[in-house]
Write a structure and sequence with these properties.
The complex is a heterodimer. By secondary structure, chain A is α+β, with helices and mostly antiparallel strands. Helix content of chain A is 35%, strand content 25%. Chain A is built from 4 helices and 8 strands; from the N terminus they run H-H-E-E-E-E-E-E-E-E-H-H. In chain A, the strands form 2 sheets. Chain A has a 4-stranded antiparallel sheet. In chain A, a hairpin with a 7-residue loop joins strand 4 (60-64) and strand 5. The chains are: A alpha+beta, B alpha/beta.
């Protein structure tokens, strides 16, 4: 797969919708194609978060490791989603586990490479930060809905 | 009141329980048939998806319950979640038991008006019950509709209702996608985890030709509607089923009133453009 095709794939991904072409070019330079078989780990809590994954196909379970128990899955992600924002904020360590539950295809973007480019090009940094902030807002909102327990029982008739 | 006026709408008619099926730990489906010679439904085509009946457990009380299946033989299918005295009593009815029925009342989903369009069905929790006959009607008239997305949310895997139907629909393949998500998963669950609005956001939707039917807790419906709007689906093509305290079911008592809307008569199915502003009013 050529770098150009990675650029095209990024351009087609909803996360990068309306991103400036020159920024897509910069991002593509930090990207590579990835394939994870079912059961493969994409992230382990506490490990260095050196990249994030733009999911194109498959499914990834984000979870919390519980000693002597199966992982506690808190969310699943799929095509159109992005896994990982820990690369963007110190201490650059994964906050959760992530495991492919199906064969998963993604574009991995090198966080160290991207951080350097963002420092050098604040417009790129802002464009990326806006998109990750949107993801954080969506996940916070989803978490709040889960906490509200909308399906819980309100005593009624 | 429905288009076809129900004679003596305040008089419950006795129905006998023919079948009882435990859907989950607290959700039960009842199939009931009229005992009296004259059934509540005069014609097999009378009840429409989205309508509800008032079910009376004698000596306990009466509750509004949506139809969860339509049958041509005059029997009624209702799915009940046990959340109070009456629904507890309904859930504990055995085959041969008797229940009082008034109805059917209210508007339907207007499934046929979605002909020629793609359809998104979003059901949260027991909200899937009034949507089940929607999907069944879509499938019975499959050529009249485009792509069908059935998006289901539940609290846990053990709270998913109509699992047999969902599995059957998901096996139909091309033209219908069934996605299920749970708020909290346990061991052995390999499906989606997250809120149902995430499924809406990820669904492949052609907003220019999509009609959506949404039912579930009001908070869920509000967020699902927002996700549909972000996909480009206009409010007047999103239909919601309002859950309100229907008591008389004939727009007399006002218990179900929401602004200027008697939900029992003008609902429970309403366009999002009509319902959302009413749900947004604080202090109700």
């Amino acid at each position: 797969m050529t770098e150009r095709s990675i650029r095209d794939l990024l351009g087609d991904h909803p996360f990068f919708a309306d991103m400036a072409p020159e920024h897509l070019d910069l991002l593509a330079g930090c990207g590579r194609n990835e394939m994870f078989p079912a059961g493969a780990a994409l992230a382990r809590e506490g490990d260095s978060a050196e990249r994030f994954h733009v999911l194109r196909a498959g499914r990834v379970a984000v979870g919390i490791h519980v000693p002597q128990h199966e992982p506690l899955v808190i969310a699943t992600l799929g095509p159109g989603d992005v896994l990982g924002w820990s690369w963007l904020f110190p201490p650059y360590a994964w906050r959760f586990d992530a495991e492919a539950t199906q064969e998963t295809h993604a574009i991995g973007l090198d966080g160290v490479c991207l951080r350097e480019k963002c420092e050098a090009d604040p417009a790129l940094g802002y464009a990326l930060m806006r998109r990750f902030a949107q993801i954080l807002v969506q996940r916070l909102e989803a978490t709040r809905m889960q906490l509200v327990d909308v399906y819980g029982k309100a005593r009624d008739g | 009141m429905a288009e076809d006026p129900v004679a003596e709408p305040m008089l419950p008619r006795p129905y006998r329980v023919l079948e009882v099926k435990a859907e989950t730990a607290d959700v039960t489906t009842l199939v009931v048939a009229p005992i009296a010679e004259r059934p509540i439904i005069d014609a097999p085509t009378d009840p429409r998806p989205g309508q509800f009946n008032m079910l009376w457990v004698f000596g306990v009380g009466e509750v509004p319950i949506s139809l969860s299946g339509l049958r041509a033989d005059g029997t009624l299918v209702h799915t009940v979640r046990s959340v109070g005295a009456v629904t507890d009593a309904l859930s504990h009815l055995a085959v041969g038991g008797v229940v009082g029925v008034r109805g059917p009342f209210g508007t339907g989903w207007g499934v046929e008006s979605a002909a020629g369009n793609d359809v998104v069905v979003v059901g949260g929790g027991i909200g899937l019950a009034p949507l089940k006959p929607v999907v069944e009607q879509l499938l019975e008239n499959r050529d009249d509709y485009g792509h069908i997305n059935v998006l289901v949310g539940a609290r846990t895997p053990g709270d998913i209702v109509f699992t047999d139907n969902l599995e059957q629909w998901s096996r139909l393949g091309a033209g219908i996608d069934v996605e299920i998500t749970v708020d909290a998963a346990g061991p052995g669950w390999h499906g989606h985890v997250g809120v149902v609005t995430d499924l809406v956001a990820r669904a492949q939707v052609d907003a220019s030709r999509t009609v959506a039917f949404v039912c579930g807790p009001e908070v869920m419906m509000r967020f699902a509607t927002r996700a549909l709007r972000e996909q480009g689906v206009p409010l007047d093509r999103i239909r919601l089923s309002a859950e309100r305290n229907m008591q008389c079911a004939v727009a007399h008592c006002g218990h179900c009133q929401l602004g200027d809307v008697f939900v029992c008569r003008e609902g429970p199915v309403l366009d999002a453009a009509r319902l959302l502003p009413l749900l947004g009013v604080r202090g109700r």
